[in-house]
Amino acid sequence: MEMNPRLEPAAETGDIDALHVLIGEDPYILEGIEQIPFVQTPLHIAANEGHISFALEMINLKPSFAKKLNRDGFSPMHLALINGNTKLVLRLLATDKDLVRVKGWKGMTPFHHAATTGNSKLLFEFLEVCPECIEDVTVRDETALHLALKNDHVEAFKLLFGWLQRSRQAHANSVFAFENKMVNWKDSDDNTVFHIAALREQREALKLLLDSPILLHVQAMNSEGLTALEIIKKVERRDTNIDMIDEDDTKINRLKQKVFPFEKLRVAASRSHNCMSVDMINTMLVVTALVITAVYQSSLSPPGGVWQGDISDSIAATTPASNINPTNHYYPDNGYFNDTYTYILYGKESKKAGTTIMSPIAFGGFWIFNFITFLLTIVLTGFLLSSFHLFLIPLIPLYLLLISYFFSMMILSPSAVWSYINFWLMWLFEFLPLTLYLVWLFKSIATLQLAVVERKYRAQLRQVLGMGKLDIGSIVFFLHKRW
C-alpha cells in the first residue's frame, strides 16, 4: 500500500486548499498511510520542499505523521534539517519538543544531525526546549558530544560541554553525576570524547576538558587498550587482554565477598526507603518536625517549672513537716533520696534559680526518655531526607539544635552531676564532625594515593599539551571518590 498519488502534487506545491478538497472527496485518504510502517507521507514531502504552512496543517490533521520515518529512515524534521530549513525545524519543534528525539536510521536524532553539521544555533534551541535530548545515543553509543568532535566541530562541542556544566536540570544519584556520566560516556569502540579529541588532535577540546571541574577519567582505555595520553604520544596498539584491575573488577570482587550484618542492615534500610512514596516521606517529616519541636520545648520549659530563687537550707528546714518532698512531688520522703549511693549517682539537688524543680532521680527518667526521643527523631529525619540532593544542608541546623538542647539541659539540671553529664555530651557532639573527618581521612589514604597517581598522569597530559600546572581535576577526582 502506498500514499494516494493525488496527495503528492498538493504536498509538493504546498497547496492546502487542494488537500482539503481531497479529504472532502475521501475522508479516509490519510488513514491508509497511517498503517504503513515506513512511508513518504505528505508531511515528509512538504518538509523536503520547505512548505511550512502545509506542514503545520498536516501535523494539525495527523500529528502521528511527525514521528514517522520514510524509507530512507528520515522523519520530517530530519528532512527539514538536511535541506537547511531552520524556520520549519523550529516550527516543528514548537508543536512537539519530542520530535527532536525521534530516532532515524542508525539511531540518529535531529539533535545528532545538528551536532554532526555543527549548527550551534539549532543545538542551543533544541537544548532550551528539550534538554533531555542530550542523553540520546546512536546505535554506536555515540552522544552528540562524540559526533561533534568526530566531525571536527569543536565550537559545537564547546557549546554542548558548556551547557552540561551550566544546566540546572536535576538528575538522580548526585548533583554532578549526569555531566560526569555524559563526558565519560564510551562509544562502541570504548572511546570517550577525550579519546576522540586526542585521535583527531583537537588540542582546544583537550585543554577545555582538562581545565574543567568535571570528573574526567583521563586514564580510561579504549578497545585498543590506549589512553588519551598514549594516543597523543602515538603509542602503538596494545593487547586489549592485558591484566589490570579497574573499577568494575573491584565491584565484582566486592559482590563475591560475604555480606556482613552491618551491610545487610544498610540494604534493609535502603529497601525500606525505596518503598516509601513522596507523600509518605512528607507526612513522616511533618510528624518528626512536631516531635523535635515538642522535645526541644521541654528543655526550655520542663515539667513542674523551675526554681525562681535560691532556696537556702534554713528556709528548707522551716518548711512544715510532710511526707511529700516539694522537689519530688509524688515520691514519699522515706529517706531513699538521702542514700549514699543515690547521692553519688545523681548528685545533690541544688535548688538554684533556673534549675528544674524535679529531683535528680525524677529528672534522670525525664532526661533519658527525652534524649532517646530527640536523637531517634533526628536520625529518622536524616534517613527520610537521604534520597534528596544536598540532604546534608537541613541536617546542619538539626545538629546545632542538638547541641543547643544539651546546653539548655545543662542549665536546667537539678544537680551538679546532671550538669556535668550534659556538659560533656554537648562537647562530645561538638567534636563529632572533627572525629568523623579524621575517620574519613584515615579511610581515604588509599584514595589519596590514587589521586596522587591521577595528578601525575594529568601533569603529563598538561605538559604534552603545553598547559600550565594548575589542575583542579585531581582534586575533583579525590573528592568524588570519597563522596
UniProtKB/TrEMBL annotation:
Database matches in PROSITE patterns: ANK_REP_REGION, ANK_REPEAT
Domain of life: Eukaryota
Transmembrane segments: 361-385, 392-412, 424-442
Entries under SUPFAM superfamilies matching the protein: Ankyrin repeat
Annotated PGG domain residues: 279-310
Alphabetic keyword roster: ANK repeat, Membrane, Transmembrane, Transmembrane helix
Swiss-Prot/TrEMBL ANK repeat ranges: 72-93
Protein name: PGG domain-containing protein
